[in-house]
Structures are given as structure tokens and as C-alpha cells.
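$ run holo --ligand "2'-deoxycytidine-5'-monophosphate" --emit C-alpha cells
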Amino acid sequence: MTERLEPGEPNPTEVVAIDGPSGAGKSTVARQLAQRLGFAFLDTGAMYRAVTWHFLQCGSAPAECAAEPDGGQQRMRDALADARLDLRGGRLLLNGRDVTAHLRTREVESQVSAVSALSFVRAAMRDLQRGVAVAGPIVAEGRDMGSVVFPRARWKVFLDAAPSERARRRCQDFARQGRQVSENDVLEEILVRDRLDSTRSDAPLRQPADALYIDTTGLTTEVVVARLFAYVRPEADGLRQVAP
Ligand code: DC
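-- output --
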């Protein structure tokens, strides 16, 4: 597996690193697991979504500046330099403003894979993520937690599920937000996102060789959380996060 830690870089190990494709149930499971363990929860997909939202606000999203000679690289770098992300108690603040409610729009969803493929964005997010873990034990979920950001994490998990089940779960999420979306459209979007996230050159979605693999198809959240709790708990006694 790719290991990007340079000498002297923080190397947190008190991390439950949960990776997997979209709709595998990572967020719900990771949040509940963190609560049971008393660890902080880090939703790294939300960080990429927040940066995407910020780019859209600045008119600098990849699709908006692709025609520029450098493909919009400089505009996006400038926009990133203007973005200060703070993670507090499960909320995401961008330049002091809580943007949690804006992260799951279709506009953001359509651009987030392209934004998260940008190496300068990934490098900035990686540093922030390691900084959070240095402050205390965390459950972190994303695509490259165990492979790149926390290669020495004490616990690594890869959550997967059949694409049709992932599409069904996503539709249920949308329905809870009052949005009616066809399951077939969602399935298509999921397959496109899987392909983009797994084939990009920087930190593609990969199952770390030392990760516990769980196929969550047909399993309830409670069952998955219980399984992970049993995996982490024996070594987690005495570790507790001070609330950020
Ligand atoms: O988990 P999610 O659907 O909220 O993630 C949104 C996007 O961000 C997804 O297309 C993949 C990307 N992502 C990433 O590249 N690396 C991460 N650690 C987390 C998410």
C-alpha cells in the first residue's frame, strides 16, 4: 500500500480508518462507532464536499474553469488558499460559516469527484486530517484513510456493499431530505463515482491489505457497528477523545 509519511510528519496510530465506496454505510456506521468508543468522528468526504461547495461559490469549480489555459489550476489554488476549514463537534465550518446543510446538493455531487482528484486539494486535506488525529483518538472515514492518510492506523476497515444496495440506501437518504430521485439514476451516478474514485492517480480508492473487510449488503447498521466495536474495543480501553 502507498505510504506517504515523510520523516518528521505526524504519524497518528490511534485511528479507526474506515474506507469504502459511496453508499457502503461508512458515515452512519463510523459516527455511531465513534460515539460508542468515545472517539472523535471525522467525515473526510464532507471536507471534500465543503471545498467543492466553496469552489462553486467562487465560480472556480472544475467544470467552470476547465476552458482556462491551465485547466483552472491557478484559480482553484487561489480559491483553496481562501478556504479555512474548521471541524467542530461534527459540524463543518468554512471561513466561520456552518456549511453542513449545503454539502449534499446535486451541484456539489456532480463536481466533488473532480475536486477530490486534485493533488493540491488532497495534500491540504491530508494535513488537516492528520492534525485532527494528533489531538486524540478518532474514527475517520473516507477513501484513503488506511492506505494514505493513516497508514499506521491501529484499526483498518473496508466497508463494501452491492451497487444496487448502495443505490437503494442513497435513495432513502434523498427521500429523507424530501428529494425523489430514481434508483436507476442514482445507481448510474454511483458507478461513475466509483470509477472516478478508483482510477484517479492520487490516492485512488483501494482496500488496504491489512484491513478488516465487511460486505454490509443485507446487514443492519447495528450489526455492522457491533462487529466493529468488537474489533476495536479490546485494544481501545483507556483511550478517549477530549471533545474538540
Ligand atoms: O463519502 P462521500 O460520498 O461524502 O465523498 C465525497 C467524495 O469525496 C467522493 O467522490 C470521494 C471523495 N473522497 C475522497 O476522495 N477521499 C476521501 N478521503 C473522502 C472522500
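-- notes --
Residues 15-235 form a domain with the Rossmann fold fold (CATH 3.40.50.300).
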